[in-house]
Design goal:
With 129 residues, this protein is of the alpha+beta class. A two-stranded antiparallel ribbon has the order 1-4. It has a two-stranded antiparallel ribbon with strand order 2-3. β2 and β3 form a beta hairpin. The radius of gyration is 17 Å and the shape is globular.
Amino acid sequence: MTYVIAQPCVDVKDRACVLECPVDCIYEGERTLYINPTECVDCHACEPACPVEAIFHEDELPQYWAHYLSVNAEYFDPPSGADGEPPATHGDHPLVAGLPPQSSSHKKDIAVFTIRKEEAADADLWFPS
């Protein structure tokens, strides 16, 4: 069993999941992140860390993104006898590379939310300025 990164990550690549992964099985392509299915230990640490909800357990992957199971696996297919490492070019799977640019509105929303959350934590509600 493994986790899969689907289309919401394309052109966002927040990388919060990379920081949470205890086995470093998440790799960066040009436009998205990929989980190496042979290295994933099914620990669930990455899924809640993803702010755009792009990570799914393979059994819970929505049908309309089911092809991302093979996209993640094929990204690590050995090109010619390599040992399962990501491509040296750090490009993307052809399906991801062929996608039109994805909206970056999710990334903007995440940044605004983070700033407001930090401001709220620093606010002293008993002594307003």
